[in-house]
Automatic annotation (TrEMBL), chains A, B:
InterPro entries: Ferritin-like, Ferritin-like_SF, Ferritin_actino
Source organism, top-level taxon: Bacteria
Pfam family, one: MiaE_2
Protein name: tRNA 2-methylthio-N6-isopentenyl adenosine(37) hydroxylase MiaE-like protein
All copies of domain Ferritin-like, residue ranges: 23-207
Organism: Streptomyces montanisoli
């Protein structure tokens, strides 16, 4: 997907020991892992919260299982931040506000909205981190791809949402609007983070060594938006 | 502590294959594991909920870690229920109402109340299940003791609550009242469960083979209450 970028930067062919000699790259990775770690912790909280809306004990247990999987991803990131001599809570702190604000602005009002939110949110975050992973050193890339490993949430959400729309097609209209609101709010918070975090932004747009490449960022956002549209269609929702 | 009981029943010397030949014992164990499993799921939810009240990111992560540990206990119980041909959600269902009602009646209004509740609740539940474990067949006992393994919550709560009382002694009075309310509500819900579930109650009061032994139940409740009083004193609270 973003293979072209990895060739651009040179970082993608290096391991952490070599790549992290560049202080700007080191700072960018701490930022990235901090953002990802806080995202996992927030996902844990969100799924645990949604578990309370579950219509059955089996659904509740399924959501608790996914929450717990997110927590284990968080633990791996937390551990890695310690290994590279970063302070995990300090690394997460800069991203807490934007993510909390996103979750505050998009509190689901029922079980289905919660499922759509978790699905849309996880998928967009996952697409984004996969794009970023291609620009990372080999060690950091392996970790990022490992914590993006599917927690099974996607299939669960798709199955439940499709069944609900089949049972009552009007539900589809309401959830399509909801998914659009989620995408809008996610983009607006992402812009805020990118504007605030120089090291991270510089890495995202073409790699530390190559400076800004706004055209490539534009293409990345197009790819993520396209994938979102396809997923919504698969769910039975017009994006 | 309850070694005398294990000698009474004979069950405590048997493995599951032998002991479960008695249908009443089989039913009692399904009840017990169902209650324990729902308790772990509810504990997961409660800790995840309390994580939102955490005053710092490090505290939030600590609570999420404990919640995740409770979920893994739940998974072991869920797995065991399947192994003994029980339906996990059906086994949990009879206990959901009492536990949900307990949590509804005792929603903490701040971080410290949440910590005291988790500590008091976990400790009482743990004391109770340890008493019961002594009456169980060897296989079920090993599982019950394994899932009672400390999730580290106790020490964490004690440390934080003691520090808060040292910083402001008036906090102690408020939390002591809160702990008394928790104990009262726990006992009232426990009575309701015992009244509803014949197989479980029969096992609790002296073992299936030996019929009711109310004096022993009385002693068990005294031991649990005494241990609670000691813990509250250690926390700096008058019970």
């Amino acid at each position: 997907m973003a293979d072209a970028d990895s060739e651009n930067t040179g970082i993608a062919g290096q391991d952490w020991a070599t790549a992290s000699a560049q202080p700007q790259y080191h700072a960018a990775v701490v930022d990235l892992l901090g953002a990802l770690a806080y995202g996992e912790l927030a996902a844990f909280e969100r799924l645990a919260e949604d578990a309370k809306l579950a219509p059955s004990l089996a659904d509740k247990a399924a959501l608790a299982r996914m929450a717990s999987a997110e927590f284990h991803h968080f633990e791996q990131l937390d551990q890695r931040l310690l290994e590279i001599d970063a302070h995990p809570t300090e690394a997460m702190e800069p991203f807490a506000k934007a993510l909390d604000e996103f979750h505050r602005q998009t509190a689901p009002s029922d079980w289905l909205e919660g499922l759509v939110k978790a699905y849309v949110g996880d998928s967009i975050a996952s697409d984004f981190y996969r794009e970023v992973a291609a620009r990372l050193d080999t060690d950091t890339r392996a970790l990022v791809l490992a914590v993006l490993d599917d927690t099974g949430h996607g299939n669960f959400a798709v199955e439940k949402v499709r069944a609900a729309i089949e049972a009552d097609p009007r539900v589809g209209g309401r959830l399509a609007l909801w998914a659009r609101r989620l995408m809008g709010e996610a983009l607006s918070q992402a812009q805020r983070v990118v504007a605030d975090r120089d090291a991270l932004s510089t890495m995202l747009v073409g790699g530390v060594a190559d400076g800004f490449d706004l055209a490539e960022v534009g293409r990345m956002f197009s790819r993520i938006t396209e994938a979102h549209t396809k997923r919504m269609a698969a769910l039975g929702l017009a994006a």
